[in-house]
Amino acid sequence: MKRCLCLCLYLRITSEFLDIWDVDLMKKREQGNTIAHHTAAYQSNYLIVRRGQEFQLEIAFDRPYQPNKDKFAVEFVIGSNPQYSKNTYVPVFPGQGPRGSWLGRVIQTSDNVVRMGVTPAANCIVGKYQMYVAVATPYGVRRTKPDKSRALYVIFNPWLAADAVFLDDAVERDECVTTETGIIYHGSHDDVAERHWNYGQFNYGVLDACLYILDRCEMPLVNRGDPIKVARRASAMLDSRDDDGVLVGNWSGDYTYGVAPTAWTGSTEILLTYASSKMPVCYAQCWVYAAVFNTFLRCLGIPSRVVTNYYSAHDNDGNLKSDIILDDNGRVDRSRTRDSIWNYHCWNECYMSRPDLPPGFGGWQVVDATPQETSDGLYRCGPASVRAIKHGEVCFPFDAAFVFAEVNSDVVFYSRGKDGSMEPVRVNRSHVGRMVLTKAPGGLTRRDVTDQYKFPEGSAEERTVLEKAEAYSCKREKAELPPGDVDLVLSYVQAGVGDDFELTLKFVNRSGARRTVEAYVSGSVVYYTGLVSSEFLFATPSVKMEPAGFAKESVSVEAERYMKALVEQSNLHFIVTGKVTETGQIISAMKLIRLHGPALTVKVSGRAKVSEEMMATVEFTNPLGTSLEEVYVRMEGAGLMLPKSKYFRLITGGASLIWSEFFTPQRAGTSRLIATLDCPALRQVHGQVTLTVEA
């Protein structure tokens, strides 16, 4: 009898209060959450939503929901020790007004099912939340059991004005958030080269890998809603030097124990390898750091783009000078010339508000993951306001002075006397920061954003900015050098790897008297960081000019002299200096020549339609007279093919390789297959093909 009474009492209690049967997060595309939140392209088993924007879910109870009688809450927790005070435990109460930072409302009820709308706070923590449903009873709270399938991701929302990463330009936003492939510029300012890259921010596992990066550096959860702190901390974690971050930098030319930086085709393999192995991935240089960082930022919803600065100064003492030391005859003294100017340097810009700065300094911010100098004890850089850099506000955080020097330093030539004294003899104020490029939204064209970093050379605005920077202890060369009357111009040269060519020197006499120049021509194989690998050419032409006349000298550059010393970027750097006999004037000119590599052809065959198999073929012919050994070819494409690679032990001179792979497009739209070929004797060989996939 007692057992029957207890059972009856239990049945009365359980029927009187709600019991939770099922929860549907409505993560299927046709249910609308992912389309409304611009997250349908993410390959994930979980719902992904953007903060500050309502998403819907359905809760099935054992009986119809009675608003005046039933009390329940949807709970969202993140981290191992969720707390209401730290916004890591967020209860959402429907129909009773906001009790927390997230809003909830009942949209409709149908039989026993309640459709509810939940709006995360526009500044909430970004990451992976676990969801529970809790029902209040006089006997305590009845809560759903832990279920991993009910997890969801909340990411930044550049479509929402209340979010700190809001970007109001729809075309720019589409490029900098949802576009999966990009172009990274390299080469030289007068011979721009392109490297296509698959960011792959929507690929399966990439979002988890990006969140793992924040976990690995033990970034407090309470800071993960602030894009300033996320970008700054991640700029340190993309490099392995002081925190076992994602990538190992290597500029040595020896990549035996990893993948050469020039061989990568995208970010997916790098991020997934790091997340699975828990070890830094080998190897990277600046464009790899920038490309993987771009994937990280776009994946989390922060608008970002890769930017290339041509002739980028590495200023480690804040003096806005890069020094080139000459002997008393005007010849470069390489043993004493230690400053370097990178032929180009890639960093990122991300878009966000800056409430920590005066009004007007939000928008694009420089962040740089390439380890150059420490900032607050770690190798990192930014975010630094681009507007602050342009206007010389180098005191603003973070690292604005360093970026300012990268685009504004002077190249100063010093003559070193026999007693060791140093005297400035020539200043080039326009060499550094010659051009700043990024990919234009849509299409495959580039955009020159130099005017966003600096005012025109020689303008009144530029002088004002430099004076302001000097007030913040950025020192420049102040020497007033007498104007010279002899100019030197080096010809434009376009040559391929293995070609002989001529470098033409044009000397122009603007005076009414005869002039004689004793010149020194130095040709070196250089890394793109400006460091010299080896000098392969040295010539000392003597030039005579009539009054108001000119003279030309040609220097022959033979492939057999530079090929054996060539490094991966295939860059030759020429410095011509000299002294005018009659006046003592020092003249100088510099020229970077990028040797063009052979073509890598990528073709596709078959109908470009979702879920229909196609074939991609890579073709390459060795143009050199020598064999290529240890050759790796890699290929991938966003929504088309995950990273694949093929090894060829030997490709003899003049021989060809053909590699074919089947693939099945997963998404409709325009995409690209990107391929690279890499071996110790020949790097920087890449190709791509664009295709439009039908639904």
Automatic annotation (TrEMBL):
EC number: 2.3.2.13
Residues of the Transglutaminase-like domain: 278-371
Organism annotation: Hippocampus comes (Tiger tail seahorse)
Similarity annotation: Belongs to the transglutaminase superfamily. Transglutaminase family.
Keyword Calcium attributed: yes
Keyword entries, A-Z: Acyltransferase, Calcium, Metal-binding, Signal, Transferase
Residues annotated as signal peptide: 1-16
Comment on bound cofactor: Binds 1 Ca(2+) ion per subunit.
Residue sites binding Ca(2+) per the record: N408, D410, E457, E462
Record-level GO BP terms: blood coagulation, fibrin clot formation; nervous system development
Protein's recorded name: protein-glutamine gamma-glutamyltransferase
